[in-house]
Design the sequence.
């Protein structure tokens, strides 16, 4: 692999396949932890006309299972389906090995209202009770918020189920040309919606820190250009159209600037654009290829990929001093860094034994951990709570999305029913 195809978000990757229709991604859990917490999620009682718009308990059950931290009890193993604490007989739940029990009630009088209680089966006490409400059309998101609360109460880590994903998909269209679609979906792949439909490649979607905008690269003008798009209105704005490469947009933590890669002045280098004035500041100026910027959470420095040492490695640029330091040393290929919100963990594409895997680098201990055992893994994106890494890979000769926990203990796939999927990006925490 030459250095351009090794580092850049290249046209070759763009033209390789992605997916097409806005279809649900299906979840296939492939690995869980050895000691997950056993929890029973009893079907929530329904009080309303007709049937409930969503099986809230089933969505919560699926979220918790997907995290790898929990082993939900199958409904067929439950000895009853209580909806109130007064209906709970703790001995029945201890008998089937459940450590926690979640019960709840769903009603609808205009908005959907979900009341729920989390019970500690071993101590026979209530751990938490909560209420979530919203439009019936947002029933799945309401369920994700319930799962977030349960996850946080038991693990002490903020849940990230009520978040979103964006990804690019492509499928072969008429005349042998691919159709590309930029799609947004819930964190479990459900409720997909198309943001952009194009006959030209779309690359590198990235979220604004407020979760209300995304930026991406589109080839619709016959060459790569960077756009930003408002999610609520769909309004799009072209930010760059320089000759050569326009790629790898990355929002600053304050949302005021966008780092990007441009080759308008020669070799690809990292620039920062002020989104109000549109003023560009050149950050790197090197004959090598500098690409794939990623902001550190404090906004004071950037990580980027460069082959200035002969092979693709990750470097850090300090915005205050202008100093550049190499960050990765293990292996002869490390690229596409993405930083967790704690500023400590960095996920990246790492080559090992000729194969491309997703790895995690602890910036404090300097230790490198390979998280995946598949090959051709690319485009890692870390959940806003730092617990899971979403990435693109190959499975059964198709491009799919997959996820792995940061300790490597839990893994699942999100294949599409048709077409190929690439370029995932996990949203920040979303405000209601």
Sequence:
């Amino acid at each position: 692999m030459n250095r351009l195809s090794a580092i850049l978000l290249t046209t070759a990757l763009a033209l390789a396949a992605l997916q097409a229709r806005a279809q649900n991604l299906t979840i296939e859990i492939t690995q869980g932890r050895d000691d997950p917490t056993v929890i029973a999620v009893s079907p929530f009682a329904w009080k309303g006309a007709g049937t409930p718009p969503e099986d809230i308990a089933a969505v919560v059950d699926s979220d918790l299972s997907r995290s790898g931290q929990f082993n939900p009890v199958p409904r067929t193993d439950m000895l009853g389906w209580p909806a109130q604490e007064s209906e709970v007989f703790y001995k029945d739940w201890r008998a089937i090995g459940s450590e926690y029990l979640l019960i709840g009630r769903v009603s609808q009088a205009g908005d959907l209202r979900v009341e729920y209680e989390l019970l500690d089966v071993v101590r026979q006490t209530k751990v938490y009770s909560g209420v979530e409400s919203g439009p019936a059309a947002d029933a799945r998101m309401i369920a994700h918020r319930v799962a977030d609360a349960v996850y946080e109460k038991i693990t002490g880590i903020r849940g990230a189920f009520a978040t979103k994903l964006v990804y690019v998909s492509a499928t072969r269209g008429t005349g042998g040309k691919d159709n590309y679609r930029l799609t947004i979906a819930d964190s479990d792949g459900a409720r997909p919606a198309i943001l952009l439909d194009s006959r030209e490649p779309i690359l590198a979607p990235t979220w604004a820190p407020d979760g209300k905008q995304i930026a991406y690269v589109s080839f619709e003008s016959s060459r790569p250009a960077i756009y930003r798009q408002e999610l609520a209105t769909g309004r799009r704005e072209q930010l760059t159209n320089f000759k050569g490469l326009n790629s790898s947009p990355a929002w600053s933590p304050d949302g005021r600037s966008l780092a990007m890669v441009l080759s308008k002045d020669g070799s690809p280098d990292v620039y920062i654009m002020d989104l109000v004035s549109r003023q560009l500041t050149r950050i790197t100026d090197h004959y090598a290829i500098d690409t794939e910027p990623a902001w550190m959470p404090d906004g004071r420095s950037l990580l980027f990929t460069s082959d200035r040492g002969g092979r693709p490695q990750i470097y850090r640029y300090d915005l205050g001093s202008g100093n550049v330091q190499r960050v990765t040393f293990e292996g002869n290929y490390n690229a596409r860094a993405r930083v967790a919100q704690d500023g400590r963990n960095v996920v990246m594409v790492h080559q090992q034994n000729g194969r491309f895997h997703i790895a995690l680098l602890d910036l404090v201990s300097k230790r490198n951990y390979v998280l995946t055992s598949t090959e051709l893994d690319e485009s890692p994106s870390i959940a806003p709570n730092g617990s899971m890494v979403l990435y693109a890979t190959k499975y059964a000769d198709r491009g799919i999305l997959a996820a792995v926990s940061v300790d490597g203990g839990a893994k699942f796939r999100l294949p599409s029913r048709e077409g190929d999927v690439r370029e995932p990006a996990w949203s920040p925490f979303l405000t209601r």
